[in-house]
Amino acid sequence: MIVQAAVIVTKYGGDLKRSPFFHTLYVCIFPAFGLLASLTYLKHLPNELFLVAAEALSKMAGDRLFPEFSNLRNSTKFIARELLKKVQELKLDLTPPKSIEEKMWFPTYEIYN
Questions:
Q1: Contact 26, 79 (CB under 8 A)
Q2: In the predicted model, is pLDDT for residue 10 greater than 60?
Q3: DSSP count for the chain of H helices, then E strands
Q4: What is the average pLDDT value for the chain, to the nearest integer?
Q5: What is the DSSP letter of 34?
Q6: How far apart (Å, rounded) are the C-alpha atoms in residues 73 and 104?
Q7: Which CB contacts under 8 angstroms, 24+ apart, belong to 60-68?
Q8: Could you give the percent of the chain with pLDDT greater than 90?
């Protein structure tokens, strides 16, 4: 997997911002941290949480480099659940957990004729 990562970043001229890794942060990991923020009263994020998020993303990806894009909502929920478990394990926030599903944004569109 590390070799695959190096090949992908090299393919983009070493520009990490243009590589799929950068976009994975925006579509999977950052939304999970947003959910965590809406579920807890954390004032800071320990570095351990970023490792938990990376490991959860890896579990969702399985034998692929990234999770399926058709499964982004489930990937984000899974990462948020893992983050919430770690927060509770570290006793960083003792408020009762709220429903992740209630806090997730879902686009709704008006139908215009």
A1: no
A2: no
A3: 6, 0
A4: 75
A5: H
A6: 9
A7: 60/28, 65/1, 65/4, 65/5, 65/8, 65/20, 66/20, 66/24, 66/28, 67/28
A8: 7
